[in-house]
Amino acid sequence: MELGTIEREIYIEASPDIVFQVVSDPNHVKQWWPDEASYEPVAGSAGEIRFAHADGGKIEGFTVVDLQPPTRFSFRWTHPVVEEAATGNSLLVTFELVPKGEGTLVRFRETGFRERGWEAAVLERQYQDHVHGWDYFLPRLISYAATLDARP
Amino acid sequence: MSAHVDDKLWSAIGDPTRRQMLDLLLAAGSGTATSLSEQLPVTRQAVAKHLTVLHRVGLVRGEIDGRERTYRIDDAQFARALAQLNAVSTAWDSRLRRVKRLAEALQQAEKKES
């Protein structure tokens, strides 16, 4: 059961074929997300994505789960490259593409936070940067938390 | 902080009644199980249980004040919880904006060619 989820919808003025290429082809993916992306755009392909940082960078596992051009692309990431991606060691991302008018409606979903827990490094960095008051954060917390199917 | 503790923090903040309680505590500065239950459609006992959950993950601190325990938000821990929520959601917002820009530029280029 997935208990923590991010969901977004975004309208793109481009055909589903083009949008599908952009979200799934590693050559495109590295233009909007990691610095390097190595995987085959084939269901089951296990690869990795790399992020270059001043401190040596980071490598995350990346495994294609489902690839149905031009309507659906899903993958798992954040697992160690040497491990097989599964519930509990990775987050599941799904892009659903729906033709709308001249363009494409993209439904994005990322699940698996509760199973995986949170990265202490991200937490620490964010916390160090945290200088905002509650007036700023509270409305965001409420609206964001409302999207979570979280249970006590 | 371990992933395990983070997970509990997430779970604590995932409940709508507990979020309302945090809201009320932020607005008023402090509250007791009695004062919070007066502002919520749940019993004092239920509020007391929720306060225990929030206390266990460090989101609130309690002090004995007369007959009842008075609770306040723990600012540092609350900031951590917010930062977690914020980090993941805003990261995807900016990635999706880049997907949109890239796809629309490719579409424009294709139109010009044909």
Structure explained in plain terms:
The complex is a heterodimer of chains A (152) and B (114). By secondary structure, chain A is of the alpha+beta class. Chain A has helices at residues 16-24, 26-32, 113-116, 120-129, 134-145; strands spanning 5-12, 36-38, 46-51, 58-68, 72-77, 91-100, 103-111. Chain A is built from five helices and seven strands; from the N terminus they run βααββββββααα. In chain A, β6 (91-100) and β7 form a beta hairpin. Residues 117-152 of chain A have low confidence and may be disordered. Chain B has one domain: Winged helix-like DNA-binding domain superfamily/Winged helix DNA-binding domain (Arc Repressor Mutant, subunit A), CATH 1.10.10.10. The longest helix of chain B has 39 residues, at 75-113. Mean pLDDT of chain B is 84; it is low at 1-5. The A-B interface holds A 3-4, 6, 8, 10, 12-15, 18-19, 21-23, 28, 31-33, 104, 106, 108, 110, 113-114, 116-120, 122-123, 126-127, 129-130, 134, 137-138, 140-142, 144-145, 148, 150-152 and B 1-4, 6-7, 10-15, 18-19, 23, 26, 53, 79-89, 92-93, 95-100, 102-104, 106-107, 110.
Short summary of the structure?
The complex is a heterodimer of chains A (152) and B (114). Chain A has 152 residues and is of the alpha+beta class.
CATH architecture designation of chain A: 2-Layer Sandwich
What is the C-alpha radius of gyration of chain B, as a whole number of Å?
Answer: 21 Å
Overall morphology of chain B = elongated
- How widely separated are the two ends of chain B? 56 Å
Low-confidence stretches of chain B: 1-5
CATH class type of chain A: Alpha Beta
Strand fraction of chain B equals: 5-15%
Helix content of chain B: over 70%
Mean pLDDT of chain B, as a whole number? Answer: 84
Report the order of strands and helices of chain A: EHHEEEEEEHHH
Helix fraction of chain A?
25-40%
Morphology of chain A: globular
